[in-house]
Automatic annotation (TrEMBL):
Protein name per its UniProtKB record: GNAT family N-acetyltransferase
Domain N-acetyltransferase: 3-167
PANTHER family given in the database record: ACETYLTRANSFERASE, AMINOALKYLPHOSPHONATE N-ACETYLTRANSFERASE-RELATED-RELATED
Cited Pfam families: Acetyltransf_1
Keywords: Acyltransferase, Transferase
Highest taxon of the lineage: Bacteria
Amino acid sequence: MTVTVRRLTPADAPAYRAARLAALHADPAAFLTNTAEFAALGDEALAARLAPDAAGVTLGAFGGRELVGLLTLVREAAPPLAHRVNVYGVSVAPQVRGQGVGAALVAAGVELARSWVGVTSLHLAVMDSQPAALRLYERAGFRVWGTRPDAVRRDGSVHAEHWLSLDLTVP
């Protein structure tokens, strides 16, 4: 599969809504937001998330014309933390998993974060219910620096959360 990764714009809001809802439905334990919460967001709110002046940058992976993956980067705003960028909302559509979409998204996110002046590290969290995602990040160079037990309770299940970082000062 040929994958193209680019920054999403407000014009991509309908495709973003569909891809994010599909991800929340396919892997509810992977995310803190649930489908009902996300579905309640209006079109204007979604477009604002994808605007050039938004707090975060959302990358979309396209297989042909179809949006099949998402990754959001958010730089810390407080000056003492501005060297850090957090990775959120990563998803790959089930029908294209194992075809390099996740790797392409993570590589594009790392490349973008490296281009931001003063950024030295990327940070993310992965639920213990997502071993494939953990392996993806570790292949990209992220390392687990801690695990929070009893991090999330949902639908009678208790999940730990693995915290990872990537040192961007190392080539």
